[in-house]
Amino acid sequence: MRGVASARAAISVVNALPLGIGVAIGIEWPARTTAQLDQNRPRRGRASIEPASSATPLVRAAARAALDRFDATGTGRVRLVVRSTIPVARGLKSSSAVSASVALATARALGREPPPVEVARIAAEVGRGTGVSATGAFDDALAGLVPGGVVTDNRHDRPLRGLDIEPDLAVALWVPDHPHPRAPRLQARFRREPTLAREAVDAALAGDWVRAMELNSALVERAMGYRYEKLHDAVRRAGAVASGVSGLGPALAALSPQGRLRAVLNALPREGRRRSVRLFSAPEVVGGGPR
Predict the structure, then answer these.
(1) What is the rounded CA–CA span in Å between residue 123 and residue 227?
(2) Which of 46-50, 51-55, 91-95, 284-288 has the lowest mean pLDDT?
(3) I need a surface site. Which of 81, 167, 174, 264 has the fewest CB within 10 A?
């Protein structure tokens, strides 16, 4: 049996570190995994992973968690090929996308088709267990699996509501070359401004994701020491309807109508990487089956 799965990168509307409530929107920048049941049964471990650079603790933990959850016999082994160009530690949810794609591809290789919420919970458990996320980033994983925006309670890995995002919008990304520090080291910084965090969460719960994104970005910029005021002004003048730091940054996302996307992209700094991406707007076609 063979299973194929993709999970997407995402951008933040509200960071879950202050209050445990996260809000994210999926974008069309996928991580892809192919999982094949391995009849050769490697001597060590239940998963062989290619390329070797993908054999990280996160990927191994995601494969092991999926095998534990979906392999009734307890003897299954898989060969995984993992492909992702999502930059690591820039705030674009690379870890959530990779772990979700690994878990879903493994499940499909075993003949299972778990719902997105279950896959996202596996990714969140793996994120906490491997130390790549303080909250588990359930919002990020779920946003990479379902279209539209999601509001989630990351303390209990529970969806709270969806967000309707205008279908005409696209995303201009600015991705600096330097990574952010690991999230568990930063949690205390984000709890210093509970009022601002609460306002961002309340706006998202009311469906006002634009205001939520702006409030959250102000909080993250203060916590991380970013100085993005001029960037926000520049992309707004170019036609963006919202902009904000994604995750812990340093990436910045600006959402704009398709007709203004090029102008917004050109308003971003030339240092680092600039990229335009579509919002994730359609469910993935199921992959997998006998081979």
Answers:
(1) 32
(2) 284-288
(3) 167
Taking alpha carbons only, the member of 200, 268, 203, 260 closest to residue 233 is 268
**150: closest CA among 23, 6, 44?**
23
Residues 148 and 16 in one domain: yes
Give every CB contact of residue 289 below 8 A, 6+ residues apart in sequence.
Answer: 1, 2
DSSP string, 205-233: HTT-HHHHHHHHHHHHHHHHT---HHHHH
| Coil, strand or helix at 5 | strand
Instruction: Tell me, yes or no, whether 159 lies in a domain.
Output: yes
Q: The domain spanning residue 52 has which CATH number?
A: 3.30.230.10
pLDDT on residue 42: 53
Q: Give the count of alpha carbons within 13 A of 66, CB side only.
A: 32
DSSP code, position 132: S
Q: In whole angstroms, what is the distance from residue 66 CA to residue 116 CA?
A: 13
Number of domains, the chain: 2
| Domain containing residue 256 | 169-278
Per the DSSP assignment, residues forming a β-bridge with 173 are 253, 275
Residue-wise pLDDT tens digits, 97-129? 999 999 999 999 999 999 999 999 999 999 999
Quote the CA–CA distance of 81 and 91 in Å, as a whole number: 24
Q: Which two tokens stand for residue 149?
A: 């925006």
